[in-house]
Input
Amino acid sequence: MEYAEILHRCFRCGFCKLPSDYTDINCPSYLKFKFETYSPGGRMWLLKAWLNKDIKTTPRLAEILFSCTACGNCVEHCVFPAFKEDLLNAFIAGKGELVNEKAIPPKVRDYFEAIYLHGNPFKRLRKNRANWATELNLESFSGQTYLFYVGCLGSYDENGQKMAYHTAKLMIDGGVSFGILGDKESCDGNEVRSMGEMELFKHIAEKNIQEFRNAGVENIITLSPHAYHSFKNDYSQLGGHFNVYHYSHILKDLIGKKEAVTSGTSIPVTFHDPCYLGRHNNDYQAARDVLRAIPGIELVEMDRTMNNALCCGGGGGNFYTDILGGGPDSPARVRVREALETGAEVLVVACPQCILMFEDAIKSEGISEKLNVMDLSEVVQSGLP
Amino acid sequence: MKNIDKELADIVGSEFVSNHPEEKFIYSRDMGTMEPAFPDLVVMPNTTEEIQKIVQLANREEIPITPMGGGLTLSGLVRPLKGGIVMDLKRMNRIIAVNEKSRYVITEAGTSQGMLQAYLKKHHPSLKHSVPDAPPIATIAGNVLIHGSGHISQSGGFHSEMLNGMEVVMPTGEVVRIGSCATSPYWFSRAPLPDLAGLFLGWAGTTGIVTKLAIKLYPNRLFNDVKAFVTEDSEQVAEVIHRVTGTQVAEDVNVVMSSRMPGFQIVFMTYSADTKEELTWKRNLIRASLKKFIDDNVGGFMVVLPVLKGDFLEVPMKNITQFADEMQGGGFEYIGAIMPIELFSEAYRTGIEIADHFGIPHFIIVRVVGLGHCMMFAYAYAFNRADEADIKKVQAALEDTNRKVLQMGGIPWKAEAPAQKQIIEHMDPNTFALMNRIRAVLDPKGIMNPGNWEV
Ligand SMILES: Cc1cc2nc3c(=O)[nH]c(=O)nc-3n(C[C@H](O)[C@H](O)[C@H](O)COP(=O)(O)OP(=O)(O)OC[C@H]3O[C@@H](n4cnc5c(N)ncnc54)[C@H](O)[C@@H]3O)c2cc1C
Ligand code: SF4
Ligand code: SF4
Output
């Protein structure tokens, strides 16, 4: 297994379970399941035991590995600089071994199959990929400055579609030159990669790179931080070099250059940092700059913010496989309670996975009356308060 | 063992009981060198009532229970030596109340050091608790129950001395309260009642399961600083400690010795103040207390560079954990010997000898407990977890250290099961007989963490 040489170096000290001020458990999988086995250190030791044949391949082992959301909290907070950068790589490599053994949870298998056959996890028709854009009359990409890549959730999920719509509308209004790929768009593959299916990821990425090249794409705006991460960091390893932006970067250029002056009513909002924008790409400011530029918005921070943000629990394919779903300690439910505690009326997100997870969590918590989840572009569009 | 999974699941919920090989594997061992001992089940209760029911069930079926907090002692104290149930208490992590005036906090047993630290910082910034340098997921209860020590131990003593009261599920299932909370709604102290806390402190979970506890809090001052005093003469260090603690100014006094700085003993003294003037005044007092050594030319103050100052003022100090990667192998274990400070020089020389003998780099860290009333003298040995021979070597060094500590008149702290046997050999037989009588009364079926404190 790749990265096997670092497994025994984990002390299982547990710094990686926590944020930097130690407030509470910050590994979403450990938060939900609570057994040491589901903590980053537990994973390290179990992988080592598995390689040593001290434990066998079991559905439990698969659940433990695939409940990792790839949020990167462990990488951020492990106290051993000599190997911390490779912790998540080791977990992904571990999942990869189970993929090779075909010992993966059924929902993970469904996910891979759907992506392979349909280019999206929902088994939806490719030709409907751009339905969200009909009303906007968007142009297909044909050499505009930017390709707007909306991804699977932006294409098919109701909340994601709304995000894509609002973002596109703002860009049209702001005079941004962009087009979409429509039915030529396919899954970005980030989750496939984070679930260890490297062959499938390579297949997806190479096809996408070819598609982008054929269309003459140089600059890409993504709706999802996951796609942003993949295009920026992983596609480049496969020869796909593009200038990649997350939509928050574009919104920042459009409106976020100066601080707003608020007079009259203001509304408290809090921002949830998506892992793939924040911890994975060290970008914590663009979305906040946008929010600060909107008059009437009072930005309040949660206890766990920026590099300490608690993941929504959707990463690593969990938004689909739902291994972490349900129960009051599911990360999304803990996170919406944390948002509510700040006194915020709106929980602002910048990722279609986060919005999906939080919409469900707010319903389960029964707090829809008190807390609204909105994506950044919708906040800008609505011009709160 | 009778199959009790279903009954346990009815008590705590099926998702919090496991007999999967993965949990059995992880809960069979800790980060130190002790051999694994496998549980039959791991269970995670959420309330005192659930613990009560589990204990009643275990009593009926005569199944051992090993209580576990962070499991971070490194001496394998949460390995279930005779199988049965490992009870991971970290779900019980609610902070119940802080009494600002009387400076104490009541919390559940599974609350972590880090969580309490963050909670106080946010809600009661004028207060702090004495934090050990263990990783922050270590629990308050686990640490108090082993007589831990930490960042206020020079002024406040062992963490068990900072304990005001407890709620305990007895090995037979009754819930008892210890300390003022047995009689009053307040958890302010263990005095003036007969002090029953001793039935649970230092017993390695063999006498009951603590579910709640109250510990003392201390002023959290705005200005913090550290001074470092260095000497190459180990004979001087006990006197250095004696003098500096005599000022009653420092909160934490540590001495560090390592093969990276051979021959040097560096005494770090942290202190805090509400104003800059007070800080200067305290610094001057510390300086004055050690002037004699400078005049005699046997030691001097060392400049602590601002980058290093941060490391030493960090609570907990991460660099102690980082010692685990010394051999690039994810492991270390230490013998923390509790001993009087006058044994410093002998203890130091012994440490060097043992390390040299086994060919291990030495790393010794000493924490002064109380006003020089005693010290925790830690001999730490790093090992490569992937190298069996290296582990065996460190095991032998640890055993040798325990033996020599006892010969000197010290006592290994949070002693691993083999070291407990060594201690018992040195113990007044009547004391050990009393321990056994107490245990027989409290735990007639012998279900609580058996294999500990036994010959
Ligand atoms: C890097 C490092 C640095 C350390 N530095 C320090 C330090 O500065 N000071 C210090 O004091 N220690 C230190 N330690 C030792 C140890 O980690 C700590 O003392 C820690 O706080 C122990 O708490 P725990 O929750 O891990 O206890 P555990 O290991 O879980 O438990 C300790 C013992 O108490 C029993 N127990 C636990 N909870 C209960 C309960 N609720 N009821 C009954 N019995 C219970 C267990 O069965 C066990 O016998 C350090 C350890 C490491 C790894
Ligand atoms: S991953 Fe790092 S921080 Fe986490 S337990 Fe292992 S060594 Fe400690
Ligand atoms: S990446 Fe996130 S979910 Fe996965 S082990 Fe690390 S902290 Fe836990």
Summary: The longest strand of chain A covers residues 267-271. Residues 273 and 309 of chain A are 6 Å apart (CA to CA). Chain A has three domains: 4-104, 122-252, 258-382. The longest helix of chain A spans residues 198-215.
